[in-house]
Every structure is written in structure tokens, then in C-alpha cells.
Amino acid sequence: MSPVTHGLLSWVLAQTPGITTRKDRALITIAGLAPDLDGLGIVVQWATANSAHPLEWFSEYHHRLAHNLTAAVICALAFASIAQRKLLVGVLAFLAFVLHLVGDVIGAKGPDGHQWPVPLFAPFHQWEWTWAGQWRLDSWQNLVITGVLVIITIIVACRRGWSPVEIVSPRADAAVVATFRRWFGPRPGTDAR
User: Fold this and answer.
1) CA 160 to CA 34: how far, in whole Å?
2) Alpha-carbon distance 139 to 115, whole Å?
3) Residue 141 carries which DSSP code?
4) Which pLDDT belongs to residue 4?
5) CB-based burial, 68-101: b 16+ in 10 Å, e otherwise
6) For the CA atoms of 52, 38, 2, 92, what is the dihedral angle to 10 degrees?
7) Does residue 136 sit in helix, strand or coil?
8) Which residue in 4, 50, 54, 65 is a FRET match for 144, CA 20 to 30 A apart?
């Protein structure tokens, strides 16, 4: 699945009752994006592609370093340690991380047919989790899931007064929420900011 879909899914998960602070919502959302940190090697790979010694960090390490349960536990413990609602954030951060792995298993096939297997038990075991029916990244299924998450995001923004933009900037988030409310109308019983 795309990082946008992973991010929206994790942010929607962060709307769980009991999660009341921007920081805790951000931690859960970031946990759902964290597995793709191993994909940042694409920048180095592109930058060195025409050099005498190209570094294939994306090809070699994406879905190898952070796409596993060990990384999920480390991420959940780290985020729980700095959260306001420690236990709840830890559990939801772990769940967001695992949802990312599941999303990649079901919907991350490349246009060339290459599947992205998930080394679920790395570094302790090299078994790779795959599914023969894996959808392409640009499949209708992924588009529908993303569309539904966008709709839920708009509803939450209109009703509760925050959107995923709050992670980056509360000021920009206020503008996004105001725009959504203007486009889709005020909602009775909205929470105050």
C-alpha cells in the first residue's frame, strides 16, 4: 500500500477513544509509517545510480530492515515511553505497525508483478510472508481503501476539529479543518478545538 494509505489508516486508528492528545495521535500515526523508514534508501540509490559504485540501498533493504515484528515491538515500546497514555499508545502503535505489514502483504505488488515479501520474524528467522493474491499498488482495491479513509478523515475533521495535518502544524491543521467544514458544512455536536 502507499505511504498515504498507511498514514491515513494509522491516523484513523489513532481516533480510538482514550487518545485525546495531538502527540499521542501523532505517535500512533508515525508508528504506522515507521516500517517504510527502510525505504529511505531510495534517495541514496538514486543519487549514486550513475556513479562508479552505485549503492542499491532501496533494492537491498526496503522490506528487509523494518518490516518485521521485532521492529514493531521496538517502535511500540519507544513510543509508549514518551506518550501520555503509555499502555494504550503502545498497543495502538504496535497495531498500526502490524497493519502496515498486513497492508503490504495484501496490496504492495509492483507493476512488473514483483511481490514485496515481509520477513515477519527477522532477524531471528528468514521466513517471508507473502500472499499469491497480492494486489498491485495501483489496484482498485487500494484506491477504494484510500478513498474510504479520506472520507473518514474528512468526517473526523468536521466533527472533532483535527486532521492528519495536525502532526505537522496545528496552524495548517486549523486551516484544513476550516476548509473541510466550509465545503461539507458544520456538523452538530462538533468538538471544540
Assistant:
1) 26
2) 14
3) H
4) 95
5) bbebbeebbeebbeebebeebbbebbbbbbbbbb
6) -170
7) strand
8) 65
pLDDT reading at 30 higher than 90: yes
pTM recorded for the entire structure: 0.86
Nearest to 173 by CA among 163, 158, 187: 163
d(CA 36, CA 67): 8
Answer for the pair 135, 109: CB distance below 8 angstroms, yes or no: yes
Rounded CA-CA distance 157/132 in Å is 37
**Quick check: 154 pLDDT over 60?**
yes
CA distances from 11 to 52, 111, 184 (A): 42, 27, 20
- Asked if residue 123 has a cis previous peptide bond (ω within 30° of 0), the answer is yes
Q: Return the C-alpha cell found at 141.
A: 482495491
pLDDT confidence of 105, banded at 50, 70, 90? Answer: very high
**pLDDT score of 189 more than 70:** no
